[in-house]
Design a protein that fits this description.
There is one protein chain. The strands form three sheets. Strands 1-2-4-3 form a four-stranded mixed β-sheet. The chain starts with 20 loop residues before the first strand and ends in a 7-residue tail after the last helix. Helix content is 39%, strand content 13%. Strand 5 and strand 6 form a beta hairpin. It is globular. Among the domains are: 114 residues, Arc Repressor Mutant, subunit A (Orthogonal Bundle), CATH 1.10.10; 145 residues, Alpha-Beta Plaits, CATH 3.30.70. It is of the alpha+beta class and 388 residues long. The protein contains twelve helices and twelve strands.
């Protein structure tokens, strides 16, 4: 999670750093609105695209003011998404008093600037889009490889990447055909880390339904129907125990007196961290620490270390995976399962929305979704995983 100071306009009582936000993505086709936006706001076409992204959302969008962030391989480039255009658009909207703007200096490691539309900008965009609903844009590349610094990296296509891209195109066509509100509908991309054996999870471009709270996701309707969200119980711990043939505790996250939500987050951090020290820091800084200690304090660091010791005692059969970067390989496995589940449903004429280890589908398709999850997990991972 990116950390920010509290700017003007943050929600009362909610630390800005803990508010839900997503990276800026020019998700809507600005061209039908460009003449009208230019008349009202001036600026470039990028300003029109940024104004739509902010004005049609209700969250903070983070973006970089460092020029090298925009220096990416050709396959990822968008001619409207450049350092000069993006920073210029944000500054102009700020000058006009239309956004809350937390502007960070270039090169501030670990921090990014962020913006959120003020009501005035939302009203302008609502008026412009009332008669012509905005259309989504598709990313220039849906199979993304990131280097060790998490920057987009180039690669040579193989049969495997070509197949993944083709499958993802089918899944995206299904999702975009659901008629979801444009503010939560989004095409998916698969993001790999360092190589194609690490990561690969499906991310909704611009956040979409994936950045909604679990409570907000329950209010989604698919083809006019309420939804059900099913997930794999304790997915990564289950995969690790299955790998060694061990027996996992009935509840992998039950560890009194620690709050269950904190234990869950800490265990997943341990599995995904490259070192134990990094895991300790991530746990100490995480919002789930609230209630035990104030995050990012010496008290939180001490509590994180005690929690790690207790988790190691509870899960001693899989402690070799803690702080070993094992999570990246597990993500490749769970992303292959997710891809298979979505394609399985598509073959039956059904569509689901993935949230990494869970899936949202019409309530009437609950049985079909559960079957697809159990069967594809067993086929790909060789394990019969629990679905809840």
């Amino acid at each position: 999670m990116l950390m920010f100071s509290e700017p003007e306009g943050a929600f009362l009582g909610t630390p800005y750093a803990l508010q839900r936000q997503a990276p800026l993505y020019l998700r809507f086709d600005h061209r039908p609105y460009w003449p009208a936006i230019r008349t009202v706001l001036g600026g470039t076409e990028t300003l029109a695209a940024v104004a739509l992204a902010l004005g049609l959302g209700e969250q903070w969008l983070s973006y970089s003011r460092t020029s090298r962030h925009y220096d990416v391989p050709h396959r990822y480039r968008n001619r409207y998404y450049t350092w000069r255009f993006i920073t210029g658009a944000m500054d102009r909207l700020d000058e006009k008093g239309l956004i809350y703007h937390d502007r960070r200096p270039p090169g501030q490691r670990g921090w990014q600037s962020a913006a959120k539309a003020k009501p005035e900008l939302c009203e302008i965009i609502a008026d412009l889009t009332r008669c012509t609903p905005p259309m989504l844009t598709w990313p220039s590349e849906t199979i993304v490889l990131r280097d060790a610094n998490k920057a987009p990296a180039d690669y040579s296509d193989t049969r495997a990447t070509l197949r993944m891209r083709k499958k993802l195109c089918k899944i995206n066509e299904g999702i975009c055909g659901l008629g979801l509100p444009p503010t939560i509908c989004a095409p998916l991309v698969r993001i790999f880390n360092r190589n194609f054996q690490r990561g690969g999870r499906l991310y909704a471009r611009g956040g979409g339904w994936q950045v909604l709270s679990k409570e907000a996701r329950r209010s989604i309707q698919i083809v006019g129907e309420p939804v059900v969200e099913l997930d794999f119980s304790c997915l990564h711990p289950s995969l690790l125990y299955g790998k060694i043939g061990g027996r996992m505790p009935a509840d992998a996250y039950y560890l009194p007196p620690w709050p269950r939500s904190l234990v869950k987050r800490a265990l997943l951090i341990l599995i995904n961290a490259s070192t134990r020290r990094k895991a300790q820091l991530a746990i100490a800084y995480h919002e789930a620490m609230v209630g035990v200690a104030l995050p990012a304090t010496s008290e939180a660091l001490a509590a994180a270390e005690r929690l790690i010791i207790d988790i190691c005692a509870l899960h001693h059969p899989i402690t070799s995976a803690f702080g070993s970067d094992e999570g990246a390989q597990l993500m490749r496995l769970d992303s292959d399962i997710a891809e298979a589940v979505l394609l399985d449903l598509l073959r039956q004429g059904d569509v689901a929305l993935p949230v990494h280890d869970s899936f949202i589908a019409p309530a009437s398709k609950r049985a079909e979704l559960e079957r697809a999850m159990i069967e594809n997990a067993e086929r790909i991972a060789g394990l019969k995983l629990n679905v809840s």
